[in-house]
């Protein structure tokens, strides 16, 4: 493994918590030749991790990984303090429980090498709250939030806390890039970070449209996956909006001429309550849309298509 111009090579990592997210991190690290110490206190966690890595590996091969994972690079322990010994990067993936994370990070901070970056995969908790009880090197604690499926989707949101150093952010960004990720630096702490807030805004209106009878669950999925979702998967909302005004002044033209109509739509967007009745309606809609297809097969097909899209994007230089 070689480092980038921005940082030293990532050689050893500890993965704390090996559920869905942690297993995705382990597969990613092994695919890039990084030595991994994994830890999880749950009964049967080691075997479930091995099964998950094996299940992920066909996709990892499509992403350029070796034919088989080098399991000699992987060790497993139930003791998180043992796992972080010698680690460069510690990636924590425990439950979204602030008190638990604060206790855990205080222990990890006391045990991990001074140079190690301590990253939480938390999707909602702020890094300042997570690092609150760290007294040794709180400046190396941050959020490194991936997107599921972790072994496929490149995005990692790097969010520093109030006591996180710029050096820790730079090192984390460089290491995630070495793992084939596309890290973004979230410059201010907000609940949900960046992408989850964007998702939440879309889900709110999607739920409202179904609740009010404007569209079915299938209608919404088809509209997005065959319409704006196709463009959003290639370019983000701002550049796509700019391109819609090509020849007439780009984004400035779009905002001047279509912006007022968009603002009126904002005023008309729904504010649904996630009642049991709405939950039942959404669940029934998904079941009808899938029509008995196996969830694992659908997820595998999704992952193959995402890998193909990533390869196509990689061939087009200069895209975000």
Q: Can you tell me about this structure?
A:
- This protein is of the alpha/beta class and 320 residues long.
- The protein is built from 13 helices and 8 strands.
- The protein has helices at 20-31, 45-62, 80-83, 98-111, 127-130, 166-178, 195-211, 217-225, 228-232, 237-243, 250-268, 276-290, 295-315, and strands at residues 12-16, 35-39, 74-77, 89-92, 117-120, 141-146, 155-160, 182-185.
- Strand 7, helix 6 and strand 8 form a beta-alpha-beta unit.
- The radius of gyration is 21 Å and the shape is globular.
- It starts with 11 loop residues before the first strand and ends in a 5-residue tail after the last helix.
- The model is unreliable at 1-5 (pLDDT under 50).
Question: What portion of residues belong to β-strands?
Answer: 5-15%
Percent helix: 40-55%
N- and C-termini, Cα separation: 25 Å
Number of helices: 13
Number of strands: 8
Choose one word for the global shape. globular
Low-confidence stretches: 1-5
Radius of gyration: 21 Å
The largest sheet, given as strand count, sense and whether it forms a barrel, is: 8 strands, mixed
What is the ordering of alpha helices and beta strands? EHEHEHEHEHEEHEHHHHHHH
Give the rounded overall mean pLDDT.
95
Helix and strand composition category: alpha/beta
Strand line-up of the largest beta sheet: 3-2-1-4-5-6-7-8
Topology:
Layout: E1 12-16, H1 20-31, E2 35-39, H2 45-62, E3 74-77, H3 80-83, E4 89-92, H4 98-111, E5 117-120, H5 127-130, E6 141-146, E7 155-160, H6 166-178, E8 182-185, H7 195-211, H8 217-225, H9 228-232, H10 237-243, H11 250-268, H12 276-290, H13 295-315
Parallel strand pairs: 1-2, 1-4, 2-3, 4-5, 5-6, 7-8
Antiparallel strand pairs: 6-7
Helix pairs in contact: 1-2, 10-11
């Amino acid at each position: 493994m070689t480092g980038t111009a921005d940082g030293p090579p990532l050689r050893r990592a500890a993965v704390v918590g090996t559920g869905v997210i942690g297993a995705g991190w382990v597969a990613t690290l092994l695919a890039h030749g990084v030595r991994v110490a994994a830890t999880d206190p749950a009964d049967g966690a080691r075997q479930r991790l091995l099964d998950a890595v094996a299940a992920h590996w066909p996709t990892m091969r499509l992403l350029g990984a070796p034919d088989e994972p080098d399991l000699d690079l992987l060790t497993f322990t139930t003791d998180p303090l043992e796992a972080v010994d010698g680690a460069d990067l510690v990636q924590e993936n425990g439950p979204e429980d602030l008190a638990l994370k604060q206790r855990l990070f205080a222990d990890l901070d006391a045990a991990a090498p001074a140079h190690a970056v301590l990253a939480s995969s938390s999707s909602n908790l702020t890094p300042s709250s997570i690092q609150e009880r760290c007294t040794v090197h709180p400046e190396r604690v941050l959020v490194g939030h991936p997107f599921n499926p972790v072994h496929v989707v490149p995005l990692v949101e790097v969010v520093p806390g109030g006591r996180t150093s710029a050096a820790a952010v730079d090192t984390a960004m460089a290491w995630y890039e070495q793992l084939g990720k596309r890290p973004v630096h979230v410059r201010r702490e907000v609940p949900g970070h960046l992408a989850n807030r964007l998702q939440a805004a879309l889900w709110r209106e999607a739920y409202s449209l179904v609740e009010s009878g404007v569209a079915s669950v299938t209608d919404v999925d088809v509209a997005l996956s065959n319409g704006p979702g196709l463009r959003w998967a290639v370019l983000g909302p701002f550049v796509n909006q700019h391109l819609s005004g090509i020849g007439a002044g780009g984004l400035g033209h779009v905002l001047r001429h279509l912006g007022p109509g968009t603002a009126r739509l904002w005023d008309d967007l729904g504010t649904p309550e996630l009642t049991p009745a709405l939950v039942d309606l959404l669940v029934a809609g998904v079941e009808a849309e899938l029509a008995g297809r196996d969830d694992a097969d659908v997820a595998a097909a999704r992952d193959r298509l995402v890998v193909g899209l990533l390869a196509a994007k990689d061939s087009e230089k200069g895209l975000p």
